[in-house]
């Protein structure tokens, strides 16, 4: 029984951190437990925790090929198959690789089911966001594509249109690939340009298949883009497209790796601006998607200083609570982190930058690399969606 007045289902299982590629791998599973501990310490009203049921092979096969699923199963026995992306430096084999990966799929699927079938309008799957996984191979630390499975489930269970918003520093290539030619799914990825960052894809001219032209949207930002520019870019692209598309539900990915302290990327986006982007997505869901919103985690490799603040903040925002950027994080959580890891824990929600930005509608600067990227994307996809690309 879900408690009355709940706004957000927070999906959790103590087994989720068992998605573990081993010591030294950037995808450190402790980022999940640190985030969940912070969410609990915050005692957020309106947040209810729900459990995870691992996805079975039939559910995985809604977006993945059977030979690939069998290859992942073999990886659990120590059998590498680099043709399927299993046993590579990015995705080493480990005994629970199949079970742990399908548990993550189950997490995001539980979030989608909760939003679509209960009175709780929002859900957060912090373990989800494995957006690089392809139908027939693992890629970029991602084995199974939980987002793709969840979106497909929503379509199969009555959703006519789903908007997917990807705010990770890396291009959401796997989700785009799965729905490349499906006009029912609008995929929007705001990421560092593939000219400087893995996976090397996601350019403005990539706009969808022949039956879905304009349904794939790619905003490729230059390296070292800072928070105000990043948020300006999101505001210039995402709201007009979502408003025109009028989805039944929004699914979003909030990789925290756009932060300036993340060692795997080259963007410079503060926690302050990342939380502002989460608020923007929340408002888009309220205004254009019947207030139905499924949010996931994703990348993020500054596991103590950044990830818990972004994803716990995302959870609070999902529940209608906007964190005070100057406010202190719970002392009990900080003490527990420092005792457990012998590392300093962040003291405040924000980075001290604030979340201000100048809207794109205020004027286009042809000398600015970010503004040129914005305009390239608007010209590539706005006309196909019936929107004037001018600012």
TrEMBL record:
Pathway field: Ketone degradation; acetoin degradation
Swiss-Prot/TrEMBL keywords: Acetoin catabolism
Pfam hit, one: Hist_deacetyl
Keyword ATP-binding: no
InterPro entries per record: AcuC, HDACs, His_deacetylse_dom, His_deacetylse_dom_sf, Ureohydrolase_dom_sf
Keyword Electron transport attached: no
Single biological process term from Gene Ontology: epigenetic regulation of gene expression
Domain Histone deacetylase: 25-316
GO molecular function: histone deacetylase activity
Domain of life, source organism: Bacteria
Family: Belongs to the histone deacetylase family.
Protein name (record): Acetoin utilization protein AcuC
Organism in which the protein naturally occurs: Serinibacter arcticus
